[in-house]
Amino acid sequence: MKNTQATLVLIKPDGLKKSLTGNILARLSETKLEIIAAKVVRVSKELAEQHYYHLKDKPFFPELIKYLQGELHDRKKVLALVYGGEDAINKVRQLAGATNPEEADPTSIRGSYGRITTKGLYENVIHASTNESEAEREIKLWFLPEEIIVDLYHAKIKTQDQCTHRVWA
Ligand code: IDP
Ligand code: MG
Predict the structure, then answer these.
(1) Predicted TM-score of the model (pTM)
(2) Residue 12 per-residue DSSP state
(3) Which tens digits make up the pLDDT trace of 115-158?
(4) pLDDT category, 2, cuts 50, 70, 90?
(5) For a pocket test of ligand 1, which of 55, 99, 133 has the largest count of ligand atoms closer than 8 A to its C-beta?
(6) What is the DSSP letter of 25?
(7) Atom 15, ligand 1: which residue's CA is nearest?
(8) Does ligand 1 have an atom closer than 6 angstroms to the CB of 64?
(9) Where are the alpha helices (DSSP H) in 30-153?
(10) Confidence of residue 18 (pLDDT cuts 50, 70, 90)
(11) 4-147 is classed in which CATH architecture?
(12) Residue 124 near residue 104 (C-beta atoms within 8 A)
């Protein structure tokens, strides 16, 4: 039986600064998954904190927020993508490699291009969702329903100032 999934990928500011975008997209295309949404995002502090809320008590959290916002790399943006297809979450995680770039398989994206800063932060060039509930939460956080070319999750119509648009239900 097919296990069709969607997963959020972020090319983090170090990936952009190191000119790895094309390279990372080429690696991801080896999975034969489909890109179903993509955009460049200026990351607010609120968005960064919501994305990494599960790490808010870690000592590296303030540095991590600055990292995702691009403040450590003079690149105040990330490239956000949604990949869809069979076993999308695991396929992308495998290719991304372990969180710690020193422990990641050296042929993985993080193993190839990541580093640990002198402050101890893992700069690992890419984010990838770890499971289905995380993927859903993250995709809904980063994308509006109309920005994704397929209907992934339940959405509803919202009317505000005489304009109607779709929001996550
Ligand atoms: P993941 O990105 O592999 O899912 P998470 O535990 O969700 O790993 O952590 C989010 C990000 O926080 C990592 O990608 C990395 O940039 C950073 N990070 C996680 N754990 C550590 C740590 O122990 N030291 C320094 N940075 C970390
Ligand atoms: Mg994670």
Answers:
(1) 0.97
(2) -
(3) 999 999 999 999 999 999 999 999 999 999 999 999 999 999 99
(4) confident
(5) 99
(6) H
(7) 122
(8) yes
(9) 45-51, 61-69, 88-96, 109-113, 132-142
(10) very high
(11) 2-Layer Sandwich (3.30)
(12) yes
